[in-house]
Amino acid sequence: MAEYKMLIDGELVGAASGETFATHNPATGEKIADVPKADRSDAERAIAAARRAFDEGPWPRKSGKERADTLRAIAQLIADNSAELSEIESRDGGGTIRKAMLADIPGAQSAFEWFAQMAETQPDRIDLEGSPFPASNNYVLFEPLGVCTGIIPWNFPFIMASWKIAPALAAGNTSVLKPASFTSLSALRLAELIAEADLLPPGVLNVISGPGGTVGEELAANPMVDKTAFTGSTEVGRRIMQLASGTVKPVTLELGGKSANIVLDDADLDQAAGGVLWGTFMHGGQVCESGTRALVQRGIYDEFVNLLAERAAAINLGDQLDMNTDLGPLIDRSQVETVERYVALGREEVGEPIVGGAHPEDLAAGLDPNAFYRPTIFAGVDNQARIAQEEIFGPVLCVIPFDTDDEAIAIANDSIYGLAGGVQSGNLERAESMASRMRTGTVWINDYHLIDPKRPFGGYKQSGIGRELGTQGYDIYRQAKHVHVNPETSGRDNHFHYSLLSGNI
Ligand code: NAP
Ligand code: MG
User: Fold this and answer.
1) Which of 57, 87, 148, 326 is most buried by a 10 A CB count?
2) Ligand 1 touching residue 254 (CB < 6 A)
3) Is the pTM of this model over 0.85?
């Protein structure tokens, strides 16, 4: 069994207490590895190392070009080890090997490449023209924030690790990352690869595994930390804000969602059905921006719902490590129980689902049926139903009928969340007009789930604060400092403020 260590201050180490915890393959329950169980003292050690590396080390003082070269070397390391990383990611988190190979590992690689480009091309000084004050030179310096911590969820462990590490390091910060306890392995393996290749000075990157309630809280609260970036549930996001407020740290929050995927009556129904099914059931719906509310226009409603049911029933569940599997297990029995509770609630609120609503019965031997849940669709749902308002984070789609475009927009926006959404339509002008009225951070027209590091990603309303990726996702890792230079170095009368005070100072 592979041994996993944490990275603290350039060393691969266990928890100071010597404690570990097990991580499992959710499809079978089989134990994969023991990982170090950090506590607050390990978190404090990692933060102190990151602080020293920032205050005294070479990393923040390197040029953008030098940092870009290192980030590209990390991207190359990911590419060189993609087969191993894909297997770890898929086995530990239950996502299909296809997703790991085609999206997770290359997606993380491209995040490092994008932020390398940011480090190289974004200016760290802008000279300002036209001062209103006489005889002064003014410029803005863009500086790293300092020690940045990242706390990430289990649904996309490797990509989420890259979204926290790459922008922080690109801008000259140092970083402490805590992966989710269900899925620590790929982030720990990345840290090990970086350490073995000796790509970073000690303390610039630290990766620690351990419980959110202690290690995560320390990363958000510790006064030596300058910024915390969190991806996870809205409930824990609120807690992160509270903890960070103690030292008025900036936070980036990427939280939950209940996104609407609007199907207009001019859509190609076959293409739209693909868009809705992919938009909902990819990774079993364990995706924050999933389009879990399909808003379908009345004229095509019956035909479209039948098409959805037929195609959802054909989705193939199985071993996530098999290249032919469409859907693997959910992350954990507790997540399956959450789905079961919501499906029971849906039966009360709406009636029998038109497809799914049960565990699969035809899995290969060795796979635990209770770890899997069939794609489930409730039709004729009222947007006020709890299953349409609350994030389930599982393979459950609510289909909601509407008559007019205005009504669709009102339903789409009637949510505490605002992470993403979709419009499926044959008329791009109509679709773009609707996109402009949706209060969400991303809208996909005739597509879904396509995220690229060049484009900002984040939420309106209770889906979060700030944007990751894009140029915006680089700017949030830098301070802007204004420097005003009065070139006159002597002579009492050249100070502008003399004209504001009448006195003789
Ligand atoms: P979670 O329970 O909020 O956990 C996320 C991370 O926070 C984990 O690393 C967890 O550690 C840690 N944590 C838990 N309690 C904490 C605390 N009191 N203080 C500090 N850290 C704490 O979320 P999850 O169940 O892993 O992920 C599912 C949720 O994430 C969904 O709501 C989903 O919508 C959201 N999500 C959002 C995005 C986005 O980009 N907007 C992306 C992915 C997921 P442990 O693992 O040790 O508990
Ligand atoms: Mg696991």
Assistant:
1) 148
2) yes
3) yes
- Point out the ligand nearest to the CA of residue 235: 1
Ligand nearest to the CA of 329: 2
153-192 pLDDT tens trace: 999 999 999 999 999 999 999 999 999 999 999 999 999 9
Q: With a 6 A CB cut-off, is 43 part of the ligand 1 pocket? A: no
**Which residue bears the tokens 């073995």?**
196
C-alpha closest to that of 263 among 300, 234, 219: 300
205-207 and 174-178 as β-strands: parallel, antiparallel, unpaired?
Answer: parallel
Q: Do domains 7-195+202-255+463-483 and 260-445 have the same CATH topology?
A: no
The protein residue with its alpha carbon nearest to ligand 1, atom 12, reads: 212
DSSP character string of 194-211: HHHTT-S-TTSEEE----
Query: Cβ atoms within 10 A of the Cβ of 277, count?
Result: 24
Which residue CA neighbors atom 46 of ligand 1 most closely?
180
Residues sharing a CB contact under 8 Å with residue 188, sequence separation 6 or more, in sequence order: 4, 5, 6, 7, 35, 179, 207, 209
User: What CATH code is assigned to 260-445?
Assistant: 3.40.309.10
Could you read off the pLDDT of 226-242 as tens digits, one per residue? 999 999 999 999 999 99
Q: Is 288 a catalytic residue?
A: yes
CATH architecture of 7-195+202-255+463-483: 3-Layer(aba) Sandwich (3.40)
What does the domain layout of the chain look like in residue ranges?
A: 7-195+202-255+463-483, 260-445
Specify the residue with its C-alpha closest to ligand 1, atom 18: 213
- Please, are residues 204 and 169 in contact by the beta-carbon 8 Å criterion? yes
